[in-house]
Specification:
heterodimer; A: about 425 residues; alpha+beta; Beta-Lactamase; Heat Shock Protein 90; 3 domains; five-stranded mixed β-sheet; four-stranded antiparallel β-sheet; 11 strands; rod-shaped; B: about 220 residues; alpha/beta; Rossmann fold; Arc Repressor Mutant, subunit A; 8 helices; about 25% strand; phosphoprotein (chain A); histidine kinase (chain A); HATPase_dom (chain A); phosphorelay sensor kinase activity (chain A); kinase (chain A)
C-alpha cells in the first residue's frame, strides 16, 4: 500500500472517531445551551405574567394552556410555600406547521408559585423545545458533511502537497531502482531542501560510493591476478612440454605429466575466461560496428560441424531475416559460439541443435538432459550442470556479460524436452 | 635462421630458446628494453619474438623504431596482455602475429614457421616432407603428386603437425589450435583421437612417407618414415 493511501486511511479512521466523539459532546452541550436559554425566557415570562396579573386579575381565570402558553391554578399556602421554581421537560400535544395533526412535542415547563391578593397560585409556563430527534438527525448530517469535506480536503492536500513534498524521495527511489553498480556512471540525485531527504541521499551516496570502490577493487584484483598468472602458467606449460619430449619416461610418469598438463590447461582457460569477463565489465571493447549474426552463426557452425557429425548431432538453421546488431565482432562471435558450443557439448548422441534467427532475436534449441537447468544460477559464474565438472563454468556468464553490455536480453527456458536459449536485441 | 627473443621473464625465455634450438634456429636473447633496442638495430633477424611489457620500456615502441629504420624482421608479439587494443596496435605497427601467454610450444613453432614462410614465399606456399606436399594457399594435400581429400579439420591438423615435425604435439595444444580457445570438454579429446585415426588411415592408404605416432597418452608426433 502506498504511503499516501496509508496515511489517508489512518487519517480518515481517526477523523471518524474524533468527529464522532465531538458530535456527542456537541449534542449535549447544544441541548444544555438551548435549555438554559429557554429557561431564561421562561423566567422572564414568569415575571411579566405575575406583573400582569396584578393589573388584570382576570388572567387568574386562565387555568389551562388552551390558547396561551401559561396556566394558573389556585394552591394552598402550605403547598405554595413549599414549592420552588422547577423546570421540567415534558411532552404536550401540539400542531406545528409541518404536522398533519396534533402530535406530542417536547416542551420546557416552568412550574412556580406566587401570591396575589393574599391568595396563592401555581403558575405553569411552557415553551416549545427543539425536537431531540430532529437535533440528532441534523447534527448527524452536519457531522457527516464535515467528515466528508475533511476527507476530501485531506485527499486534495495529500495528492497535491504531499505528493510534491515526497517528490524528491520518489525521484531518488526510481534512480536507485535503475542503478547498477559498475554500469551506471551517475549517482542517484534528487535536489531538495528537505532535511530528511538530504540525509537519506547522503547516506545512499556514501553507501554506493563504498560499494563502487569495493566493486572496482574486486574487479581490479581479478584482472590483475589473472594477468599475473599468465606468465607462470606459460612457464609451467612450456617446461612440462619440453620435459615430456625428453625420452626415457615410463608410461606411468608420462600419464601423470599428461594429467598435470590437462589441469594446467584448465587453469589457463579459466584464467582467460576471467580476464575476458573483466574486460567486458570494464567495457574495454569499443570496436562496435554492425555485425550480421547470421554470418557469425554460419561461421560457428562451420567450426562445430565435424564434432557434431562425430556425435551424430544434427545442426539446422532457420532464418527469417538478417539480425544486425551493433557490437564488437569478437564479442558477437563469443556469444554465438559459446551458445552453440554449449548446445553441442551438453547434447546427447543422435541429438539435435536448431538455430532460429529473426530480425530481433536468435534462438538456440537443443536436446540434452531431460530436466530443466537451474534458472537462477545458470548465468552466474562457475555454475556447472551435473556431470560436467570439466567446464570452467564461465561460458554462459560471459554470454550474459556481453548481453548486459549491449542491452540484449538473454532468456532460458525448457520446453518439450528441449533447452532453449534466446538472445533478443532491443 | 636467427631468432631474437625479447622477454624479461628468464624462465620463459629459457624454455622458448631450448625449444627453438631443437628446430635448429640460432637464438639470441634480450631481457630489457635497451638490449633489445641495440640488438634489433644492429643485426638482422628472421624472426623477433617481442614481449610488450619490458623493464625500461614498452615493446610496442621497439616495434615502431624497428619499422622506422626500415627493417623487415618478422615480429611476433608475445604478451600476457590479451587486450584487443594492444593486439590491434601491434598489428597496425607492423607486427606479423600476436600470441597471448600462455601458449603451447607447438603453437609458437607453428606461428614462427607460418610467419617466416609467409614473408619469404612468392605466392606459392607449400610444405613438403618426403613424398607429401601441403599447399597452404589452396588448402590441398598431395601424396606423390596425387591429391588426397582432407576435411577442414584434418587439413588443419596435418598442417600443424608438419610445422611441428619430430616434435611432441600435446592433445591440449592440438585441440586448442584446431578448435579455438574455449575447449573445456573432455569429449573433445575423443574427437581429436577420431580425427587422427581417420587422418592416419588416409595417409596409409596413399602410401605417404609420414606417420603420426602417439606419444604415451600425452599427444602425437609426426615423423618421416
Amino acid at each position: 500500500m502506498k504511503l499516501l493511501n496509508k496515511s489517508l486511511l489512518h487519517l480518515s479512521l481517526w477523523m471518524f472517531m474524533i468527529i464522532g466523539v465531538w458530535s456527542v459532546f456537541f449534542y449535549f452541550n447544544m441541548l444544555n445551551e438551548i435549555k438554559e436559554s429557554v429557561d431564561e425566557g421562561l423566567e422572564n415570562y414568569k415575571r411579566q405574567i405575575i406583573y400582569s396579573v396584578e393589573k388584570d386579575p382576570s388572567l387568574l381565570k386562565k387555568t389551562n394552556f388552551d390558547e396561551g402558553f401559561f396556566a394558573i391554578r389556585e394552591l394552598s399556602e402550605e403547598k405554595s410555600l413549599r414549592g420552588k421554581d422547577t423546570y421540567i421537560d415534558t411532552l404536550m400535544y401540539m400542531q406545528d406547521a409541518d404536522d398533519q395533526e396534533l402530535e406530542l412535542e417536547p416542551v420546557r415547563l416552568l412550574a412556580t408559585a406566587f401570591k396575589s391578593n393574599d391568595r396563592f397560585y401555581e403558575l405553569k409556563i411552557i415553551n416549545s423545545m427543539v425536537e431531540e430527534d430532529d437535533l440528532v438527525k441534523e447534527l448527524f448530517r452536519e457531522a457527516l458533511v464535515l467528515y466528508l469535506v475533511l476527507i476530501a480536503a485531506i485527499i486534495f492536500i495529500n495528492s497535491f502537497i504531499l505528493k510534491r513534498l515526497w517528490k524528491p524521495f520518489y525521484l531518488l527511489l526510481n534512480q536507485l531502482k535503475d542503478y547498477r553498480v559498475g554500469s551506471s556512471d551517475k549517482l542517484p540525485q534528487a535536489p531538495t531542501n528537505t532535511k530528511e531527504f538530504n540525509d537519506l541521499q547522503q547516506a545512499v551516496t556514501i553507501l554506493l560510493q563504498r560499494t563502487i570502490e569495493t566493486y572496482r577493487q574486486q574487479k581490479e584484483f581479478i584482472g590483475n591476478a589473472s594477468h599475473e598468472l599468465q606468465t607462470p602458467l606459460a612457464i609451467a606449460t612450456n617446461k612440462l612440454e619440453l620435459f615430456v619430449e625428453k625420452a626415457g619416461l615410463n608410461a606411468e610418469q608420462a600419464g601423470n605429466i599428461s594429467e598435470v598438463l590437462d589441469i594446467i590447461g584448465r587453469m589457463v582457460r579459466l584464467n582467460k575466461s576471467l580476464l575476458l569477463l573483466t574486460k567486458i565489465e570494464n567495457r574495454q571493447f569499443f570496436n562496435n560496428r554492425p555485425v550480421s549474426l547470421n554470418k557469425v552463426v554460419h561461421q560457428s557452425i562451420g567450426d562445430l560441424e565435424e564434432l557434431a557429425a562425430f556425435r551424430n548431432i544434427e545442426i539446422s538453421v532457420q532464418e527469417t531475416a538478417e539480425m544486425l546488431v551493433t557490437a564488437d565482432n569478437a564479442l558477437a562471435q563469443i556469444v554465438v559460439s559459446n551458445l552453440l558450443r554449449n548446445a553441442v557439448f551438453h547434447n546427447i548422441n543422435y541429438g539435435s541443435v536448431a538455430v532460429f534467427i529473426t530480425e530481433k532475436s536468435i534462438q538456440v534449441v537443443n536436446t540434452g538432459i531431460a530436466q530443466a537447468l537451474d534458472h537462477q544460477k545458470l548465468f552466474s559464474r562457475f555454475y556447472k550442470s551435473e556431470g560436467h565438472s570439466q567446464g570452467s563454468g564461465l561460458g554462459l556468464a560471459i554470454v550474459k556479460a556481453v548481453c548486459d553490455l549491449y542491452g540484449f536480453s538473454l532468456q532460458y527456458h525448457y520446453d518439450e524436452k528441449k533447452h532453449i536459449f534466446e538472445v533478443k536485441s532491443s | 635462421m636467427k631468432i631474437l627473443i625479447v622477454e624479461d621473464e628468464r624462465e620463459l625465455l629459457d624454455a622458448i630458446s631450448v625449444s627453438l634450438k631443437k628446430e635448429h634456429f640460432v637464438i639470441e636473447n634480450a631481457t630489457d628494453f635497451y638490449t633489445a633496442h641495440e640488438k634489433m638495430l644492429l643485426y638482422d633477424y628472421d624472426c623477433i619474438l617481442l614481449d610488450i611489457m619490458l623493464p625500461n620500456g614498452n615493446g610496442l615502441q621497439l616495434l615502431k623504431h624497428l619499422k622506422e629504420t626500415g627493417k623487415s624482421g618478422n615480429v611476433i608479439i608475445i604478451s600476457a596482455k590479451d587486450s584487443l587494443d594492444d593486439k590491434l596496435k601491434g598489428l597496425e605497427l607492423g607486427a606479423d602475429d600476436y600470441l597471448t601467454k600462455p601458449f603451447h610450444i607447438a603453437e609458437l613453432n607453428a606461428r614462427i614457421k607460418a610467419v617466416i614462410r609467409r614473408n619469404r614465399s612468392n605466392g606459392k606456399d607449400t610444405v613438403e616432407v618426403g613424398n607429401v606436399a601441403l599447399d597452404l594457399n589452396n588448402r590441398t594435400f598431395f601424396v606423390d603428386k596425387e591429391a588426397v581429400a582432407l576435411n577442414r579439420k584434418e587439413f588443419d591438423i596435418l598442417n600443424y603437425f608438419l610445422f611441428n615435425k619430430n616434435r611432441l604435439v600435446t592433445k591440449g595444444a592440438l585441440a586448442e589450435h584446431v578448435w579455438g580457445d574455449n575447449i573445456d570438454q573432455v569429449d573433445n579429446f575423443d574427437f581429436i583421437y577420431y580425427q587422427i585415426k581417420n587422418l592416419r588411415k588416409k595417409l596409409n592408404q596413399a602410401n605417404a612417407e609420414i606417420e603420426i605416432e602417439a606419444v604415451y597418452g600425452i599427444g602425437y608426433k609426426l615423423i618421416e618414415k
